[in-house]
Amino acid sequence: MKRVLAVLTAALILSGCSGVKSVDLSGVKFDGAAVGDSFSDIDTDRYTVTERFPEGEGVHNFEEWRITERKRKITDITAEFEYIEISVNGVKDCKHIEDVIALLGNDYRKKIYDDEEELSEIEYRDKKADVTCGFVYSQRDDSLVLAIMRKK
Q1: Could you tell me if residue 92 is inside a domain?
Q2: pLDDT digits over 20-73, tens only?
Q3: What percent helix, strand, coil does the chain show, rounded to 5?
Q4: Does residue 5 sit in helix, strand or coil?
Q5: Is 67 a domain residue?
Q6: Sequence-separated (6 or more) residues with CB below 8 Å from residue 48
Q7: How many structural domains comprise the chain?
Q8: How far is CA 139 from each of CA 37, 84, 136, 143, 144, rounded to the nearest angstrom?
């Protein structure tokens, strides 16, 4: 019996059943933009340039969001829900983490984002597009704070 359980456990681990399943993230947009889009298509005049954050090659820092590009394509976006319209599958009024879960499902990884600030994050992965998208929310009232999308 122990041997059967060991074989079943190994089969589950090797088959990937213990990992996060893939979710289609093509419907997650930040003011209409997403990773893979061209940075030049964004009207940057609408945002406030800042030098508060560390810069690097291809990094564009604004008070409202931070965008990284490589080879003219967006690879990373970090945006605040307060300032940037973040839509999930066409829905633009997500205010709480439950709103995102209702739209994208339960196949996510949950982790602490900032223990001191009482922020948690759920992260979805789109294996086909090789993209992750994390949604940071307040542990106090489940309100959404940030969204972070990255091309792996």
Answers
A1: yes
A2: 899 999 999 999 999 999 999 999 999 999 988 777 889 999 999 999 999 999
A3: 20, 40, 40
A4: helix
A5: no
A6: 62, 63, 64
A7: 1
A8: 32, 21, 9, 8, 10
